[in-house]
Amino acid sequence: MDWRKVWVVARHEYLHSVRRPGFIIMTAIVPLFGILVLFVGTFFAGQASRLGDFFVEQFDSTSQRIGVVDRSGYFTPILPEYRERFLLYEGESEAETALLAEEVTTVLVIGEDYLETGRVVAVTKGSGFGSAAVSDSGSVRGFFVDHLLAGQVDPALQRRAANPMSVEPRVVSSRGESQGEGAWGFVFTFVVPYVLSIFLVMTIFISSGYLLQSVAEEKESRVVEIVVSSVRPIELMSGKVIGLGAVGLTQVMVWMLSAVGFSSGAVALLAVVGAASIPARVLILGVVYYLLGYTLYAILMAGVGALGATSQESQQLAGIFSMFAAVPYMISGFLFANPNALLARILSFFPLTAPTMMMLRLPLAEVPWIDVAGSIILLLLSIPVALWAGGKLFRVGLLIYGKRPTLKEIWLILREG
Amino acid sequence: MIIQVQDLVKRYGDFVAVDHLSFDVAPGEIFGLLGPNGAGKTTTIRVIMDILAPDEGEVTVLGQPPGRAKGQVGYLPEERGLYRNLKVLDTLVYLAELKGTPRGEARERGTALLERIRLEEWADRKVKDLSQGMQQRLQLVAAVIHDPEVLFLDEPFQGLDPVNVERVKSLIAEWHQAGKTIVLSSHRMNLVEVLCDRVLLINRGRSVLYGPLAQIKQAHAPHSIRVHAADLPLDLPGVIQVQPDDGAFNLTLVEGVDPKGVLRELLDRDVDLRAFEVAPVPLEDIFLAVVQDEDESEEGVNGLA
């Protein structure tokens, strides 16, 4: 292998790709987004600590006014602190008129046997969604507890019964190190790494997609024959894999640096107390999985890309591999519930799904080390196999013009070389 | 010898594309690799260029196995194209670098070659902005950007208009004068025969005719001449038959008789000559005649079997 020629190909592919407008826009998105968040954050600096409350409020229905028809007597009169939101009505018909006139969004009809049965009828206009939201609301629960216990227990106990806990998220690693507290801790330990891992996975496909395109274009434009008269196919393929891998790595580095800059910027600018950095394992393993995943996919894409007669045809062929990589995304809803579920672990040991699966699992939980080691070893072992198969397809495919080989022909190529 | 091919065989499955082919290319000559489409010319070149591996036989390029001397060999493939989105000069520089030419040198040479083909103003434009003719000229100089010793031109006149054919011919002549060895491959024999010193004609992967062009032509020249004269003596030595034809005479000669001897005899006898011509035989006609003979003898053999 003439490494000087590999370098010439790699440099050509790199420089050609980083000048593409698509690459520049895609790479700039993350830092721009970070700058935007910091700008908005600084602007509302005083309210940064209330970020968590803000999210909670989005899902609460405190702004809605609620009508109450009280047949039990426990809620009459309404305590002064609830009078603004809860309106008492004599009868159901009166309350329903108010509901139709949109004076209230829900009417709670509290039966005479309330104490024994707890039965409350919630009447809403339109769908039943509003009544479900009301029954789940913390402030409505507080209304009931306060009225039932008013004057009967210690006021402090009453307040606690109405609002039994105020949860503050705090994340620690398996070694017991604190990784951040509060809403910002949640953002840095979960949101940022998760988004970052999705971007890494995207980069694998964007870079190997560039590779596919580059091979298919060279073949389609027929320039490949001049190229392979100058360099050996394995040198050409290696140069492309390295050059376009570096393109992806450039993108990843820009993103990671901006994510790190974003987190320290948040600490400096917003004075977020206890805000943590992105977990190092996510950053380091993220790069490892990116490199392994990209290399595996890139080699396979190069082989398959060389088989298509046109770039469109090559892309169709490469779709088989993209489908494998998409499987972990399809089960991501289920992953949130249990990132170490058996299916997730199995997919982490299958080379074509391992990079995506592991990148999605890493920010969600402490992944067992055996999964990390196992998936890395399997990826390392599968790369030479891919190189063998992809290299053969690449070498033979490059000079097949005008028609796509059948599966039988592909098998013959692999068998005979 | 610059190139030596000995008993080369290349198969695609059951199909034999090149069948025990042997030939040499001497330094500084223009060598014609000629034959109809599908004869095995491109496959032979691809083996010499180390793009395909031979199944049998031996090939050396500049005394080395194919692939070792890639930097000294230039190639204009039949299936050709360029990077459409790359700039004109960058394309030349990249292709030269792939051949091992240092970047700075490649840039200088690229600029000079663009001037030679009058594309210097297009150096910073993308290849896709060039017209078809311009792209073809660019492809041709891309084959010599690294200053090779040997140049393979596979169907160099394909798709060219007459003006560009002449331009390409003059470039080939120029490189030949500069001492480069050139191998021309074409199915348009009549177009390239004027350029070649020696030729190899192949058909169905096998050698049909091989040697200096002049010798081949002489060996296959028809034994006839055409004489325009008022009257002709019938007892000319070496002449078997004299046939009047539209105010002229067609003379059939005994095999091996030099037409110059007949001319001398006519002048000695003071015949009133207005024109004397040895009809030039196009290479293609020779090729067709030889191939036809071969096919007939093959059919005969098959028929007997």
Question: What does the overall shape of chain A look like?
Answer: elongated
- What is the share of helical residues of chain A? 55-70%
Q: Profile the largest sheet of chain B.
A: 6 strands, mixed
Q: Beta-strand percentage of chain B?
A: 25-35%
Q: Any idea what the CATH architecture of the largest domain in chain B is?
A: 3-Layer(aba) Sandwich
Structural class of chain A: alpha/beta
The number of domains of chain A is 2
Rg of Cα set of chain B? 24 Å
Can you list the strand order of the major beta sheet of chain B? 5-6-7-3-8-9
Over all CA atoms, what is the radius of gyration of chain A?
30 Å
- Total beta strands of chain B: 13
Number of helices of chain A: 18
CATH-defined topology of the largest domain in chain B: Rossmann fold
User: What is the largest interface, and how many residues per chain?
Assistant: A-B, 22 and 26 residues
H and E order of chain B: EEEHEEHHHEHEHEEHEEEHEH
How many structural domains in the coordinates of chain B?
A: 2
CATH superfamily of the largest domain in chain B: P-loop containing nucleotide triphosphate hydrolases
Sheet with most strands of chain A: 4 strands, mixed
What is the CATH class of the largest domain in chain B? Alpha Beta
Tally of individual helices of chain B: 9
Helix residue percentage of chain B: 25-40%
